[in-house]
């Protein structure tokens, strides 16, 4: 018996970052939108915990107990007094170290799959509590859709979205470490007063109305200057997307994936082709959102399958 869970990538349409807290974290106003790029995590009983991975950049994924999928299995097992003896297989399609929550998606997927496999039947709040222990982006990977994350990003409020938004994503040749980007944010912010992060009302209205032009005028990412400082070549990719007609361009999360909001699928195809021709990125993908959260694909009754969905 095995259980497979599909989990989406995310793009941050707003990432407002506060000053560093005494614990080293930052308060955030983080507006997540799940998009239709997915990892799949398959969990099978085994003699011991092990992790395997396939797909683009699979060689960059840790296969030991530091992997978020492994940590999720261990966390659920500890709560229910059992051993995490499972084989976790990750089929990756979300860029690795790309600022699109690929690792967080794998953690959420493993948690939901182990819950189904072991029959622990953890409630939604318990699953979200474990997700928050694993990392700031993991709860949203479970929930999907669109949400405002506050605190470290783990406290979620579902958001209304009035339509589908279309995106092009350009993957860079190198990854960026999220902690390194936050450290660079702190360095660049040294000596300045950093305002408390708040969600943009204009952006929330644009999401609710399904208006791509209004959303394009409101997207923002406070980590973008830090990502560009560490990886200046990303500016060339952003410029190529603007020249190709993207409504808005931004670094996705901590980067280095760059995101381009476009009007419709035809525009997405045009911008994607222009980015491929530009030679400024390693690969290009298109996707739309909001997408549902972690969803069990097998060995669980369908009425329970969307327990983590928005």
Task: Explain briefly what this protein structure is.
With 310 residues, this protein is of the alpha+beta class. It has helices at 68-79, 102-118, 124-134, 138-143, 178-189, 201-209, 212-218, 224-230, 234-243, 265-278, 302-305; strands spanning 3-20, 26-45, 50-54, 86-91, 146-150, 155-158, 165-171, 220-221, 248-251, 258-262, 283-289, 295-296. The longest helix is centred in the middle third of the chain and has 17 residues, at 102-118.
Written description of the protein model:
The protein is α+β, with helices and mostly antiparallel strands and 310 residues long. It contains eleven helices and twelve strands. It has helices spanning 68-79, 102-118, 124-134, 138-143, 178-189, 201-209, 212-218, 224-230, 234-243, 265-278, 302-305, and strands at residues 3-20, 26-45, 50-54, 86-91, 146-150, 155-158, 165-171, 220-221, 248-251, 258-262, 283-289, 295-296. Strands 1, 2, 3, 4, 5, 6, 8 and 12 form an eight-stranded mixed beta sheet that branches. Strands 9-10-7-11 form a four-stranded antiparallel beta sheet, sandwiched between helices. A hairpin with a 5-residue loop joins strand 1 (3-20) and strand 2. The two termini are 27 Å apart. Mean pLDDT is 93; it is low at 300-310.
